[in-house]
Amino acid sequence: MTNLIPHTQIPPQSHSSLSTFETCPRQYEARYILKTLPYQETVATAWGNAAHDALEKFVKASGRYEFPDLRHPENGRSLRDYQWAGEMMLERAARRGGYVLAERSIAVDHNKDTTNYWDKQAWIRGKVDVTILYPALGEAEVFDYKSSAKKKADAAQLKLYSASAITDYSEVQTVKSGFIWLNFKNDGPVDRPAVYSRAELPQLWGVFEGKYAALQNAYATGVFPPKPSGLCKNYCGVEACEFMGRGLLRPWYSLRYKLCCWPCP
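Now predict its structure.
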């Protein structure tokens, strides 16, 4: 049995880093350990960052912030088209006696207790776009803005945000979480919320304990095997990987990796 290395030798993780590891351990190694796959901002990510920044300032200013007249370089969409989302968050909180927190930093240690975001011994950390607390109701709502096309909700991300709200605020007994699709103001912009209770907190953190155990094993063995998929062909920049730019399995690959503990694609 592999001897797992101490938590102190593994840096704090995020939803993004754990998702990268699940997608492909080799890509995780290149991005977070070897640092050979630096972050590269695309038009889409730059636009998303600008939208998040404007909405954060709008909410923190209680609506007294003017969105910049910035337009998407490809489709011409105006950043001001997203102001409705900030207004909706403020109105939603006011209607039920709540208050809004924008870009709330979250971090928990290995005991699942709240810790400082910059704590090097933290287990998981991240930032939540919008948190609305309703102290009198014992409730909270957490939302994440999406400036992309609609797609299936990332259940793990919503579970992390929900678990953090329950952990951070003792008065919160129930959390509703969902995504806000900024480009779909008139076509179901808010997903039907996922609802979690304080009684479910151990199960919520359990999701990430399972993800972390696999990561911890990889750190202990030093083995971060590739996990080829359709993403290899156009969406991976790990040049040291034999599957980059191909995305197809060699005949011997399936046989070779049936012998290991990693699930074959």
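The helical segments are 15-23, 25-33, 43-60, 83-95, 155-168, 201-221, 251-257.
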